[in-house]
Amino acid sequence: MTAQIKYADVEVGTELPAGSFPVTRATLVRYAGASGDFNPIHWNEKFAREVGLPDVIAHGMFTMAEAIRVVTDWVGDPGAVVEYGVRFTKPVVVPNDEAGALIEVTAKVAAKLDDNRVRVDLTAMSAGQKVLGMSRAVVTLA
């Protein structure tokens, strides 16, 4: 697959379509099984509170993966992402109810680079708090 977005058609400041990603306790259990990360802070409310967390929290790598979906959906090819990094600033707290939590992601083209690449800066929020800082991806466009 190749990126569907053309480098020549993108300007600095171009906003990508935003994404909202629900997270429930069941989502975290499935992610734990897929990732092998069974740390009890991601599924055991009592344990999470005992170690000072407000409740069960989403895995950091899960949060990162949900956020980059905004970029991969926009570009049309996950392989077009050549760099991606974040700083974890706040956890995504996932209450034990049907609604769970919501990760809301916005992104925009921050720079045009050489070789048909752009840098995309992402903002990921949950419960009104920024959960990822310095969230940036470099993407190769058509």
TrEMBL record:
Domain of life: Bacteria
Gene Ontology terms: biological process: fatty acid biosynthetic process
GO function terms (MF aspect): fatty acid synthase activity
Domain MaoC-like: 20-112
GO cellular component, one term: fatty acid synthase complex
One Pfam family named in its UniProt record: MaoC_dehydratas
InterPro entries named in the record: Fatty_acid_synthase, HotDog_dom_sf, MaoC-like_dom
Family membership noted in the UniProt record: Belongs to the enoyl-CoA hydratase/isomerase family.
Protein name: Dehydratase
